[in-house]
């Protein structure tokens, strides 16, 4: 894993010290809230419905055991004993008091972490495939590039006041697990004709109120050109992006209003300038970063105990069937630890769970953990021989739920239980759906199905790309939920289609059940997934099931 | 024609703790919405909001929220304000941990 250089350490420490002084000046009255707000946002500190919220970056989703233990310590000492992992590989603490935040930032800096640029109109935490460095299908580990981007974008003088926030994701595998097409810039590592590493660059993707799938601005950017090319994109956006209207300020609007061809031409013009500025130092830095992401010294253990447990322990077997992914080493596996036990809050982990996960990673996964945008924790490299023991340990801390990729593995934003921007709650809907399908005992029959819930139009819960998407709105003072179907967040990104009028909080779980039962009733067989069924049949059978009296209802709404 | 005025309370988040607070009749800030001043007059509401905004050493983001009279004092009329008055629904944290919940 990457270790901070002296420069990184000094910079992060200086920010902690600055913020400590800024908080003191806010509390003694020398700074007004208008003066303080941009300063606190630059350091990830929001003010939410019930308290402040500190959003901490987990760059490219990678954590060491020591860092995870520190997050647990922070949760216990300055928060209420838990943390919430987000869809952008951050962790949010929901209850800090203002005066404690500098100490929290210091505790983060002590383990080479920070909350810098987790808010504001800057380049945000750079995210990556959570299976990075482990996935069997990977072309190259995306984390060194993501770390290079972190260093480049952190405190980049020109990009501190962009028209709007700016999100970058990197995948090193053809299976896009990083939702790159829904980012302002999406980067896909691939090999060129001569086998050299390069990057397909997508631009102008994003969800929110105007969902747009990222467009390929350049099919292949050679390795050495990546940073100057990205700088050219962000410079172009910085000049063209609209500052007159917050809702039209994201790069997706800039690209749409300018036209992809014209935008590309402008980027190419800038690129001629930026390329000349980069003298190769970035490549030297990248090489040094790469050296810090070595493969673990894999332990070669007989897989016998694993195979034996598969035959003797059906619960273990069921868990391996859905929570494991193929590792590039045949005697290892990638373990996804589900933070989605039915009835629990998606993405939340208690301090005790964080510590237990840190211990497990240390004992069995070379001290490494990942956080996925799907709000789960990954143990990226586990020898298969250790899996039965890992499963037993996870059971003891309530984290052995076998549901990854299934209907109860729901993405849910914090919604109106915490968020000041939310228009409705997300968490209770997620909890109720998971409990309902647990009671129905249908989850494994249903098979792969991704439900994603956002509590407002900003779409932190990625509802547009859920197989079933749920958007919570405030309709005349009552929580109301719109459903979309057929969304897909992978390399074949598709935006979901709205079913029709929304449902009240008391009816939305029933509506999801209706959708799922319609699929189960009409699918060709268990091998036809929900998404395949939707692509074959379209939305009509679901509309019919959801709104049997549709014509009457429409007349009623029109009146 | 402008909308008729509906009763309001002045609410904000406290500077240090960040929790929801309400302006009381005696110019204090209470963590309990029932203790808020229920404002029935529009001009008075504007004055009270201005006064609240002059308290940056105590509170952040003061605004007027709709409310109605209840047996214990002002009550929220919108679910957002109801959540602010009690806490999140996934854990017994926030105000509901200490004081009785306020129903919308």
UniProtKB/TrEMBL annotation, chain A:
Nitrite/sulphite reductase 4Fe-4S domain sequence ranges: 119-271, 409-546
GO MF annotations, alphabetized: 4 iron, 4 sulfur cluster binding; heme binding; metal ion binding; oxidoreductase activity
Keyword Oxidoreductase: yes
Pfam families for this protein: NIR_SIR, NIR_SIR_ferr
Keyword Transmembrane recorded: no
Record-annotated Nitrite/Sulfite reductase ferredoxin-like domain positions: 52-110, 327-396
Protein keywords: 4Fe-4S, Heme, Iron, Iron-sulfur, Metal-binding, Oxidoreductase
PANTHER family tied to this protein: BLR3264 PROTEIN (PTHR32439:SF9), FERREDOXIN--NITRITE REDUCTASE, CHLOROPLASTIC (PTHR32439)
Name this polypeptide is given: Sulfite reductase (NADPH) hemoprotein beta-component
Species: Pseudoroseicyclus aestuarii
Source species taxonomy: Bacteria, Pseudomonadati, Pseudomonadota, Alphaproteobacteria, Rhodobacterales
From TrEMBL, chain B:
Domain of life: Bacteria
Annotated Pfam families: DUF2849 (PF11011)
Region (Disordered) residue spans: 83-104
Record-linked InterPro entries: DUF2849
UniProt name for this protein: Uncharacterized protein DUF2849
């Amino acid at each position: 894993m990457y270790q901070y250089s002296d420069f990184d350490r000094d910079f992060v420490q200086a920010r902690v010290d600055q913020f400590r002084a800024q908080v003191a000046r806010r509390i003694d009255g020398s700074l007004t809230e208008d003066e303080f707000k941009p300063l606190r946002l630059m350091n990830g500190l929001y003010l939410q419905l019930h308290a402040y919220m500190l959003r901490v970056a987990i760059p490219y989703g990678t954590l060491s055991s020591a860092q995870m233990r520190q997050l647990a310590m922070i949760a216990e000492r300055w928060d209420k004993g838990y943390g919430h992992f987000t869809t952008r590989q951050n962790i949010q603490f929901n209850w800090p008091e203002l005066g404690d935040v500098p100490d929290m930032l210091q505790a983060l800096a002590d383990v080479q972490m920070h909350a810098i640029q987790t808010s504001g109109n800057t380049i945000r935490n750079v995210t990556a495939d959570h299976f990075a460095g482990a996935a069997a299908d990977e072309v190259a580990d995306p984390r060194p590039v993501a770390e290079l981007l972190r260093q480049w974008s952190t405190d980049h003088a020109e990009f501190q006041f962009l028209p709007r926030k700016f999100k970058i994701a990197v995948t090193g595998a053809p299976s896009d697990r990083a939702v790159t097409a829904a980012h302002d810039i999406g980067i896909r590592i691939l090999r060129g004709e001569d086998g050299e590493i390069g990057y397909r660059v997508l631009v102008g993707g994003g969800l929110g109120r105007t969902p747009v799938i990222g467009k390929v601005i350049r099919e292949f950017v050679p390795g050495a050109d990546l940073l100057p090319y990205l700088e050219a994109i962000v410079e172009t956006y910085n000049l063209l992006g609209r500052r007159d209207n917050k809702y039209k300020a994201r790069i997706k609007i800039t690209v749409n209003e300018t036209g992809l061809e014209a935008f590309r031409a402008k980027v190419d013009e800038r690129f001629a300038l930026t390329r000349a500025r980069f003298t190769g130092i970035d490549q030297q830095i990248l090489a040094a970063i790469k050296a810090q992401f070595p493969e673990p010294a894999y332990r070669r253990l007989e897989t016998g105990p694993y195979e034996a447990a598969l035959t003797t322990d059906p619960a273990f077997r069921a868990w391996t069937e859905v929570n494991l992914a193929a590792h590039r080493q045949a005697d290892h596996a990638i373990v996804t630890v589900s933070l989605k036990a039915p009835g629990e809050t998606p993405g939340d982990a208690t301090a005790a769970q964080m510590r237990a996960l840190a211990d497990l990673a240390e004992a069995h996964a070379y001290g490494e953990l990942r956080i996925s945008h799907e709000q789960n924790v990954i143990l990226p490299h586990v020898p298969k021989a250790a899996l039965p023991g890992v499963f037993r340990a996870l059971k003891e801390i309530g984290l052995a739920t076998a549901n990854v990729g299934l209907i109860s593995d729901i993405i849910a934003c914090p919604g109106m239980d915490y968020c000041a921007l939310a228009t409705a709650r997300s968490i209770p809907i997620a909890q109720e759906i998971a409990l309902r399908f647990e009671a129905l005992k249908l989850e494994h029959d249903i098979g792969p199905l991704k439900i994603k819930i956002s509590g407002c139009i900003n779409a932190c819960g990625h509802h547009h790309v859920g197989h079933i998407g749920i958007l919570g709105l405030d309709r005349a003072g009552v929580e109301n939920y719109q459903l979309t179907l057929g969304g897909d967040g992978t390399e074949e990104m598709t935006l979901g289609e709205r079913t029709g009028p929304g449902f009240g909080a008391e009816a939305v779980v029933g509506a999801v059940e209706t959708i799922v039962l319609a699929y189960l009733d009409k699918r060709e067989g268990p091998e036809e997934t929900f998404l395949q069924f939707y692509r074959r049949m379209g939305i009509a059978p679901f509309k019919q099931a959801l709104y049997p009296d549709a014509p009457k209802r429409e007349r009623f709404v029109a009146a | 024609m402008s909308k008729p005025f509906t009763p309001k309370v002045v609410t904000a988040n406290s500077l240090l703790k960040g929790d929801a607070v309400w302006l009381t009749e005696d110019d204090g800030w209470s963590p309990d919405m029932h203790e808020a001043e229920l404002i029935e007059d529009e001009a008075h509401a504007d004055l009270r909001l201005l006064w609240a905004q002059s308290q940056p050493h105590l509170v952040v983001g003061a605004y007027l929220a709709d409310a109605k009279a209840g047996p214990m004092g002002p009550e929220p009329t919108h679910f957002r304000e109801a959540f602010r008055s009690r806490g999140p629904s996934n854990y017994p944290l926030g105000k509901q941990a200490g004081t009785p919940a306020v129903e919308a």
